[in-house]
Structures are given as structure tokens and as C-alpha cells.
What does this fold into?
Amino acid sequence: MLVRTFGAAVQGINATIVTIEVNVSQGIKFFLVGLPDNAVKESHERIASALQFNGHKIPRKQIVINMAPADIRKEGSAYDLALAIGMLAGDEKIVCEELDSYIIMGELSLDGTLQPIKGVLPIAIKAREEGYKGFILPLQNAREAAVVNNLEVYGVENILDVIEFLNGKKEIAPTIVDTRAEFFSNVNLSEIDFADVKGQESVKRAMEVAAAGGHNIIMVGPPGAGKSMLAKRIPTILPPLTLQEALETTKIHSVAGNMDNNTSLISQRPFRSPHHTISDVALVGGGTFPQPGEISLAHNGVLFLDELPEFKRTVLEVMRQPLEDRKICISRAKFAIEYPASFMLVAAMNPCPCGYYNHPDRECVCGAGVVQKYLSRISGPLLDRIDIHIEIVPVPFDKLSELKDAESSEKVRERVIKARQVQEKRFEHVKGVYCNAQMSSKQMRTFAPIDKAGGELLKNAMQRLNLSARAYDRIIKVARTIADMDAAENILANHIAEAINYRNLDREGWAG
It folds into this structure.
């Protein structure tokens, strides 16, 4: 008997429906075709043990299984459940007229227990788009899939539950998640706050500007000055995720297998902080079976690179294109996958190998030329793509010990949101641009004109600091953000002056 069950293959952050055709007829052989990998081929043994443990058997007949479309490689153990149900339905052990109305996915343990799988959210979205009635999957993934409305999601713990459900012998209540209520209840939860940071008012101002315009920022300062502490609090002043951004972010983390069991939706902006020993593939994504890298996992959030000069140069250089295009394309001989990578880069570094160059109290012990050599580990083109360079000095004792509370993240975020709202209105008819940092040179001429005084100030700074054309663009973009924060329609000279002040690493003689 020929039957069909349906699963899905995840490519990038999107899913493709896989039709599993099972023909059970007279004979004794077993064939599995349709470009399965070894994990799919090994499903026969897992299915046999799971069925036997629960009082069923693989049909002792000839079984031919085709997984279509045959030109897409089927990877992983998530097809176990769909294959097992197809075999039983082909042997008429399952009789269900609506079998082709369900997407069925799940990895089987030897006792029939279902294990969680990756990529559930993209599969659920595709199932709804294709008009399927329901999605049968492991219970641990049910809440993640249930954020998709107009789709019945059935979380199950054991293959026996699925068999009895399809045969009409058991009722399984669909998992229901009030997506909006759950999202908005968690969107503002945070355990850390800018109020925890004593002093560093100029750095906080630079971070507020960076958050308001979506600008990349690098902090330079000695050990213990608070660089990591400040960086970890940047997500708390960024505008809250929209529901659409939350879904897009959750899709990426779902594909990467980073979702906790029984988690439905990522409601707070990601903060990724990879170690400096990371490889270029781990950072941008890829591998034999491509997976999202750290820059994609930081999509709609913050990528924090601590000790920036300690990263391998090749790792840093591969970020240049994603920083401009806000996406990463991974190409293979037979296919290409595109991952979104719209993140805010926050970097931190010591000013020199010993860490105390320009320190107010301690003397730098680095030799002549060492500071410049240390800084040169970061290429000029990469530094140009970082809009704001800010120098941090240690906080004095009287600031650390004062009892007065610093300004909270909530108050800073309110100002950031107001500035972002100005930008949203400005770019409402411009596709793919949502904040000032994303403006092209052509759009800058339209949206960020500068007056004569500001132009003269910028001209002098360009000549004195020998800035590149990209640095020129960055200064204007940052000045446009500062003007938005001041509710100014045009960029004024004081906005240009503050933006120039945020190019510390471009100052002549900074590194000796």
C-alpha cells in the first residue's frame, strides 16, 4: 500500500516541505532513497526498537521509501517519526483519512520517546503557508511552534501517543500560546541596568548615541575601566524588539538549536560575546552542513567582541561585508544560503599590550612603536566601519563610592526610542533602511545635509586628522543621530563637533 506523510527540511532560516512516500508490498527488502544522509539512514534501527518497545513491529514486507524532492539533502534524525508513521500506515496499522493534513517531525529514542529537534519555527511557518491542518512534534518543541497561529500544534512524548491519536483512540489537546501576551509580558524584563554603572558619563552618552542611531562602537581603555560592564548593558537601552523582529530572531536561534525546552519566543535583543579564539566559520556561519554563525545569532541585537586585537585578522576581515550589507551569503557548489546579520557591533580593547597607555596613574611599559603595532592588528577598513571610537578612563574612588543612583536604562531607552521614531518616519518610504547607520551615501545627501559652519568644521577635521571618505560618512551619520536626539531638523555645527569627538582613534598622534 502506498501512503504519504510529510516532514520538512530547513535550508538557511526557511523550510521546504518534504513528501515521504512509503510503499509497503510483498517482499523482504528495505529501500530508503531521496538523498538521505547517514543519520536518516540509521533511522531504521531506531524505528525498529521504538516500535518493538511499544508493542508494534516494522512490517515484514518490502518497504520502499522515497523522500521528495530528491535533489535536497535530508539531514539529521528529525524524520524518524514521519518515517515510522508512514511504515505503519503503509501496513494498515494506522488508518487515518487526514494523515496528509499533518506535518510530522521528531527524533525517536530506542524506547519510543520523542527527543527535541531543531528548526521548529521555520517548519511551523511553512506548514501554515502550505495550508496544513496540524503539526505533530516532540512536546519540548510544542510552545515554540505554537507561536504560529492558524495551525494546530500537537506536542507528544511517545510514538505510541501519535499512533493512538491518528487511529482516533486518544485525544491530544493542541498547544496554545497567546503570542502577543507572552511577548509583551517579557519584552522589558532585564536583570541588569545602566544605573549599576558609576561615573563614565561621557561613555554613556556615546553609547546612547550609538543605540539611538544603530551605530557600531569601539571602547578603548585599561583593564577594569568597565568596558565589558557597559557593553552588556547596551541591549537594555536599545528599543524593545517588535513582534516581527522577535519572530525573525527566534527563527535563527531555532535553526541553530539554541532554543530552551518549552520556550516559545525570544522577546529580548540577543547579546552575543564570542571568545577571541573563535574561527571565521563559527563567526560568519557555514560548515559542511551550514549553520548560522555568531553574527547571525546576534541579528537584531548586539555582537560584543572583547579584546578586539586578539582576534585573528582573518576572523575580523570576514566581518567587513556583513557590516555593510547586513546579511551573509554562504555559497556551496549546489546551493547558496543567506542568513540575516543586522547587528550592532560593540568592540572593546586595551590601548596597548600592557593595558596602561594614556592611563592617568599608571605608567605604560610598552616599548617604542609597540602601541601603534598593537592597534594595527585591526585593519583600517574595519575601523572605518565602526562609527564611534570612545576612550575610557578608570572611575575614581569618589565616584565608585557615592550613594547617588545613576540614570536608569529605562530613562535612557525612552530618549533612544524617541530618536528611533524620528528615523522610522524619515525612512518610512525607503526599503531596508530603519536607522541612520543604514543610510547610503546618496540617502545622506537627502536626509543629512549640513550647514556652512558644520561643513567648514568637518573640512578642517578631515584635513587635520587625514580621515578617509568612509570616516566622513560615519561622522555625518552620527551627527544626524545627535541632531535627532536634540529634535533638530538640520545638522548643526555642534552636532558635527560632537560626532568628530567620537573618532578618538583617528586623532593624530593618539598611538604615539
Notes: The chain is about 35% helix and 15% strand. Residues 409-426 form the longest helix (18 residues). The chain has two domains: 2-166, 185-430. The radius of gyration is 28 Å.
